[in-house]
Amino acid sequence: MGSPVSPIVANLFMHSLETSAIAKSLCPPKLWLRYVDDMFIINKRDGMEELFNNANSISENIKLTKELESVDHKLAFLDCLVERRHNNKKLKINVYRKSTHS
């Protein structure tokens, strides 16, 4: 088992990583949310690539992966399906249900 302070140290490290990545970015994100080790970021597509590369260059021990929205402007995040309404720039959030194989 890990130490009881491990989650606190991990949160502090991730906060430091986020702050450094954003500070290095020429196009800072419009929104950056994190729950444990899952991040939801809204940014311009070219700014997203730069931000992703900045974050991955900070520590060799942490390598982030990314998932971009689909062609129909949807993205599963945690147990939510986030849909970007292209015409009015609003987000619609529904419960995400994985497809089952029965």
Automatic annotation (TrEMBL):
Domain of life per record: Eukaryota
Name the record gives this protein: Uncharacterized protein
Organism listed in the record: Schistosoma mattheei
